[in-house]
Amino acid sequence: MAFLTGEVTYSRGLEGVVAAITSIAAIDGEEGKLIYRGIPIELLAEKSNFEETAYLLWFGDLPKKDELENLKRDLVEHREIPQFLVDCLKGAPKDTHPMEILRTCVSMLGCFDPDKNDNSRGANIRKSIRLTAQMPTIVAYYSRLRRGLELVHPDPKLSHAQNLYYMLTGEVPNEEISKLMDVILILHMEHGMNASTFAAMVVASTLSDMHSSICAAIGALRGPLHGGANERVLEMLQEIGTVENVEPYILNALKEHRRIMGFGHRVYKAYDPRARILKEYAERLSREKGDTKWIEIAEKIEEVMIREKGKKGIFPNVDFYSGIIYNLLGFPKEVFTPIFAIARVVGWTAHVLEYLQANRIFRPRAIYNGPLDVEYIPIDKR
Fold first, then answer.
1. Res. 367: pLDDT tops 90
2. Is the pTM of this model over 0.85?
3. Which of 33, 49, 94, 379 has its CA 20 to 30 A from that of 3?
4. Does 319 participate in catalysis according to the annotation?
């Protein structure tokens, strides 16, 4: 009996398996390079903003002035969420993780979406824009509710990145913080065929709806091996406590084969370019806030880890310094991963839009290694 015929190759975790052809983004893991539509991430972080980069990923080119203004207008128009969802947020248990809330609310948004029964490309673009506009509101509203604070409603005068900061903190960001928020969202916006993007594409390949695809992506991102790592980084820094404790802590953790959160990446065998950019901002923000404790601990961890594991291609990834920045900005730890999702929804939807243009349902095979010809024993004889 042949359950699989021909040559079969098993790749644990699908490592090295090519699942799609894309023009959205590319990673050179050996050199530590990342490009969006051919533009190096360093250039976009320096010169672009959230709305412009989102347009680039969705539509393939940097927008002209009128195209950018139209997108900004559409994002502002759709920021508010249905009152039913606000009531759900108010009634949710306060110990519910914001990623669970985000996943659930995105599912509910699909029920309210005016294009819910339309799976055309135009409708999916509109859904992508609405989801991108609404997810920050969900995260900010729930974050404030669970802390017993009044809701801060979206401000149409603020950019997407500025408005996220404003709704979380109640303060309009200055120019420097505004730029930092744009950089954070740009760096987290897209990263090729990662677990959450693949999850979204698998669901979309069945011709399910966009909201279902994004729910799947949020579920994948929540895991500590994916987006949830940034929360664990801050917890590790707090556990270490002082620069003097770094070396014994790290060496002992390595000896016990414990994972050092924020280090290593399935693709990068060099320094993650996103981490390099965020490290500079973390250093600058730490000095300006007069709170250098966490960056000093982090830099010592980096020093020890590169000394011990750098030859094996283990370097800081995007999660390592992002948690420090969020903490300095006053964001509660539980919103670190939702902020990741708020940015990555652009990449998720861009890949769904691209894949559906030449869709084929994902249907991998599995190698069966169980028994054969097992006798069925009636229940009264077992």
1. no
2. yes
3. 379
4. yes
